[in-house]
Amino acid sequence: MGLFSFLFSKNKKLRTTYEAETFRTVFREDEELFLRVQKSEELRNFQVLNERVNSPQFKQHRKEIEQLSYKNSEYYKAEKQYKALLKMKKLRSYMLIHASQELKGYEHFVQTPEYQEYLKLKVIVQSVGFDKKLHASEYVAYKEMITRPKIRAAIKFEKLRRYKEYSEVKKTDLPSEFEKLAVFVQSDDFKANRKFLLDKNRYKTTEDYRMLEEYERLKKSADIVKYCALLNDSYFNSMRKWQLVFEDDFEQGRLDATKWITRYYPGERFLNDTYGVGNDVQLFTPDNVSLQGSAAVLSFRKESIIGKYWDQKLGIREKEYEYTSGMISTAAVFRQRYGRFEAKIKLNHSPVTSCFWMLGNTDMPHIEIMKCQADGVYMGRVYRHKTVPKSDIQLLKEVTLGDEYYIFTFEWTEEKMVWMVNDMVVKEVRENIPDEPLYIVLSLGAQEVPADKLLPVRMEIDWVRGYRLKR
Q: What is the tens place of the pLDDT at every residue in 381-426?
């Protein structure tokens, strides 16, 4: 089965022009949304979050958070050690004495001369081998000293069990260790982490979860859902890759001379006049090009006129033509190597040929995008130097000649040439691809004398567009 037969099999109907234009309207709306979303802060946030929350690191971090245990944490160990120290009898004594006014008073008194004198006498009296008779004065002074209220109070304080335990603990690292643990356990950071680790739903309190929630929200956003769908939409991407570089919708009231000429290019450039070639029975004249109802109209009519023609042996000659017709061409202003070229053309039964084609500086290469004759529509022939066109031009039986518009498109890249009707592919070629700039031509003509009773004939063109691949 050939490509054309496959594309237009019973299971693949040709899209109507209305459907094609509806698709294009939707495309323009989609592209507007796509470009707006593409520039949005919302999409940037989604893309950052998408990369982050779907990364192995993010998933591993969640697993680690959900597997956390308070009993296996430094916080639990610190709290356990802190509670154990709190239960130590000696440390409790230390803490009771350490912060007491009693200790402050005692420590202040022991710095006085009175207490220092007492210490001095105590050392002498309680020394080994002290003889109170030999040192009667010291002994009497000591006895008198310990009867003093302040000295008595100090001695009593020093004999307290808790003071002894305080003095014992003071010589260790326990107080500083306990103080550090107390500060840590009573800190906001400890309390927050303790609460976090004891919470069975701790993951929901994390910044990771907030990011995941925001990601899920953005993922469901109508604009982002549409944007992501468009990224994978083949029709949208096939249309979006083209940049419009030439357009005429024929709504100016008269033909735009900055875009079109109405004769063969050599006549425009060298003769400043129109001429005929080959077996053409008509002479192209500007009078047969008009704008009517936002469409360019080419007319083929019976009209006797003396005009030039190109004789391959003798050059430019004059002859009498019995018919005149219309042609428009971008040869003087728009030529391009590769691109997308299309026109919306009304087809009808006609004894002459309506043609949408492309040409360069010479007769070859010559690409027929669309040719409509009395028996129907043909597409896809490429004429090249030193190559004979194959009989592969397609007769489009799906395209009816009922005075209806169709969109004819030709896509041309280094890799392939594609012909389309209403944006549906009817032919594709991947060999013998021209690689020189060509221009657009639309013409209405004949190489055999038509039946006069069927004249005049019109070719109506709603618009013409040219694109190039976006860089």
A: 998 876 666 655 777 777 888 788 999 999 999 999 999 999 999 9
What's the CA gap between 308 and 293, in Å, rounded?
A: 32
Give the whole-angstrom CA distance, residue 254 versus residue 392: 38
**Averaged pLDDT for residues 54-79:** 95
Query: If phi over 0 gives left and psi between -120 and 50 gives alpha, with beta otherwise, what is residue 272?
Result: left
Buried-state track 274-288, b at ≥16 Cβ within 10 A, e below 16 = bbbeeebbbbbbbeb
Q: Which residues pair with 440 in a beta bridge?
A: 358
Rounded Cα gap, residues 46 and 36, in angstroms: 15
Listed in sequence order, the residues at least 6 apart from 331 whose beta carbon sits closer than 8 Å to its beta carbon are 261, 265, 268, 359, 439, 441
pLDDT tens track for 152-199: 998 998 899 988 988 999 999 999 999 999 999 999 999 999 999 999
Task: State in Å, rounded, how far the first CA of the chain is from the last one.
Answer: 37
All residues at 6 or more sequence positions from 336 whose CB lies less than 8 Å from its CB, including other chains: 245, 437, 438, 439, 466, 468
Secondary structure E strands in 80-176? none
> How far apart (Å, rounded) are the C-alpha atoms in residues 316 and 267?
10
Entry pTM: 0.72
